[in-house]
Amino acid sequence: MIGFILADLRRLWLGGAVVVLLVALATALGVAVTLQERSLRLGSARAADKFDLVIGAAGSETQLILSSIFLQAAPLPLVDGAVLTKLAADPRVAWAAPVGFGDSFAGYPIVGTTTSLVSNTTPGFAEGKIFALEGEAVLGAAVNLSLGAEIKPMHGSAETGGHTHTEIAYTVVGRLQPTGTPWDRAILVPIQAVWHVHGLGGDHGHAQGHGEGDADTHAGEDHQGDGHDHAHEDGGHPEAEHHGGIDPDAPIAENFGDGLPGLPAILVKPKTIADAYRLRQEYRSGNTLGVFPGEVLTGLYATLGDAKAVLSAVAAGSQALVAASLMLVTVIHVGQRRRQIGALRAFGAPRGSVFAIVWLELFVLVALGVGIGFLLGLGAAHIGAQLFTAKSGVILPVGFTGEDLRLALFLLGFAAVLAAIPALLAYRQSPAAALRA
């Protein structure tokens, strides 16, 4: 019987290939949607895992998290620098690190921060060391530069027509081990250097005044009056806007006192869970906003879930159409093979054998399509994950789980039922009627 089935499939290979392709494409769509949505959840959760609490100025919680943790450039309102001073002295805080951003180099964001953030959120150095001087920089694992490279920061990015600070340069002194987060694509420099580049933080070094119109999510005293930055309002970045400079050999100072410039965000590590909730509540009033990254991600996951539901419905609809098409094709095919089926019955083939032959032929084709569809869906999800990682730095873990095994078993069960319908039609045919057809 197996030999007969294989010979039949070889004879009808073109039609069989079409059946397999239709089933594979319909299955791949649903599998790719499921894998991609799950990997986005896991990847984003891992990226935010090291950051317990984010404090910024009152505004959008989602944008605060996207900018400060996922390093998605966007103008943010600035929180008063006094908040950092208060947090640094708070006994409930293990460490508090400011972040300042807005500059870039070769497509990589330049992030101003502190040694405490680097040491507490990364697994260590692959080579080199932490920055100790104002003119030093540390690379994320995915930054394609070498130790000793010179970095001239650009205000904004090349896409937005940014202006390069040609008179200022950082020297790369270290590279971090991979973290699987957007920080792998970041260039980290001392926060005081970011301030000084833009003429801010005069009491923390040697800044030469204030650069008006240049907050762009950098720390900025100029804009504390209204609590917002005013990046790109004039549509350009003339040289006159940048009055700051750095002393490459100046030691960094991280004992933040009074008179700090405004900050786009402060990343906080509370000592206990209870301290985290107290701090969040304390800074969710007035001009400040305390946010747990997990809370914001939960809202984003709900949006992802809605999108997944829509795409899954589309995939289910396409699978139903494929199933209906296969039913039509196979029923017609059984009708065209009435003489062959009648001959088998006339030569003594029992009804069960005829049923098994027709059922196995269709089931093998559908099962093969399901298997190929899972592989195509996995490949599509991997490609999507790689593109997303290259753009954002977030590593998306794509892979099958028990949920996918249950889906495969369901599809195979459905294929078994589907294949039984034309097989039952063949089973009910009498040999005499088939031969007369």
What are the salient characteristics of this protein?
437 residues, alpha+beta, 12-stranded mixed beta sheet
| Oligomeric state of the chains present here | single chain
- Rg value: 31 Å
Summed up, the helix count is: 12
What does the main sheet amount to? 12 strands, mixed
Which structural class matches the secondary elements? alpha+beta
The gross shape turns out to be elongated
Number of strands: 12
Q: How much is the average pLDDT? A: 78
Instruction: Return residue spans where pLDDT drops below 50 for at least 5 consecutive residues.
Output: 205-242
Distance between the termini: 24 Å
| Helical coverage, percent range | 40-55%
Task: Characterize the structure shown.
This protein is an alpha+beta fold and 437 residues long. Helices cover 49% and strands 14% of the residues. Strands 1, 2, 3, 4, 5, 6, 7, 8, 9, 10, 11 and 12 form a 12-stranded mixed β-sheet that branches. Strand 7 and strand 8 form a beta hairpin. Helix 10 packs antiparallel against helix 11. The chain is elongated. The two termini are 24 Å apart. About 9% of the residues have low confidence.
